[in-house]
Amino acid sequence: MSQASSDRTILIIGASRGLGHAMAAEFLHKGWRVVGTVRGGHTRTPLHDLADAHAGRVEIEVLDICEPDQLASLNRRLRRRVFDILFVNAGTTNRDPTQTIGEVSAEEFMHIMLTNALSPMRVVETLESLVSPDGIIGIMSSGQGSIANNENGQRELYRGSKAALNMFMRSFAARHAGSSRAMALMAPGWVRTALGGPEARLEIEESIPSLVNVLLSMRGTPGLQYLDYRGRTVPW
User: Fold this and answer.
1) What is d(CA 82, CA 4) in angstroms, rounded to the nearest whole number?
2) How many CB atoms lie within 10 A of CB 132?
3) Residue 99, SS3?
4) How much is the average pLDDT of 37-45?
5) DSSP notation for 159-204
6) Would you state the pLDDT for residue 2?
7) CA 44 to chain centre
8) Phi, psi of 100 (to 5 degrees)
9) Residue range 66-78: average pLDDT?
10) What contacts 24+ positions apart, CB below 8 Å, involve 169-172?
11) Where is 214: in which H helix or E strand?
């Protein structure tokens, strides 16, 4: 990717608020163009404010990643585009994250696994053809998706969904072993967002600018890496 920053474009899936919105803002700060998705077309989000503040450099698309028809429609709308980076930011947790896996209802299990594991990979599988041959495909994972680091339990359904996401992405990378693209599973740390909660250790400003720099540093390095926001390898 040798072109000027102003010619580079990232497609961020899930950019309406929180970490995705912060990533959009950071890429704009670096001179990139941003195409970001929001759920529902009639609610104003912080991404709309970014679009107003950066005229002509932000495009907003509508996508609920759990709706395959919407994903197919987005792919049709963007099929002639080429993106330097595709980044999928999606994550939710069950209403009571203290529940053990044996206490979780089947309904919540299916919802969390659909949102955190299956749907992000459907996005990657569907949109990967839009990424330039030397581009980057990234997904927001979590350090809690590390099996090796799980010594305390807790947040069991969330942990399991992120571990599943990591495994699915490893399978994707194995099937694309000859690709020149960099691929990343990113762990942003415990950040104060609607998902992370008010007790989280990090402000968004402590995580996302560093995470973006780590992501950009992967350009030209084919293959999959599981990294935290400081660029440290997270054990699988």
Assistant:
1) 15
2) 16
3) coil
4) 86
5) HHHHHHHHHHHHHHHHHTTT---EEEEEE--SB-STTT-TT-SB-H
6) 40
7) 21
8) -75, 165
9) 98
10) 169/121, 169/124, 169/139, 169/141, 169/224, 170/224, 170/236, 172/121, 172/124, 172/125
11) helix 204-217
DSSP category for residue 87:
E
Neighbouring C-alpha atoms within 13 Å toward the C-beta of 100 = 3
Residues 6+ apart with CB under 8 A from 118: 168
The whole-number pLDDT of residue 1 equals: 40
Burial class (CB in 10 A: 0-12, 13-18, 19+), 11: buried
CA torsion angle 192 197 200 205 (round to 10) = 0
Q: Are 181 and 124 a contacting pair, CB within 8 Å?
A: no
* Phi, psi (degrees; rounded to nearest 5) at 13: -90, 115
Structure tokens at 31: 């001179």
228, two tokens: 């935290």
| C-alpha span between 216 and 234 (Å, rounded) | 18
Neighbour-count burial for 186-214, b at 16+ CB within 10 Å, e otherwise? bbbbbbbbebbeeeeebebeebbbbbbeb
C-alpha span between 12 and 36 (Å, rounded):
5
Output the pLDDT for position 154: 85
Residue with tokens 């402590």: 206
Q: Measured between alpha carbons, how far is 94 from 108 in angstroms, rounded to an integer? A: 6
User: Cβ atoms within 10 A of the Cβ of 69, count?
Assistant: 8
- CB burial class (10 A; 0-12, 13-18, 19+) of residue 40? exposed
The residue to which tokens 């206490």 are assigned? 103
- Taking only the tens place, the pLDDT of each residue in 103-151 is 999 999 999 999 999 999 999 999 999 999 999 999 999 999 999 998 8
CA dist., res. 122 & res. 68, Å (int): 8
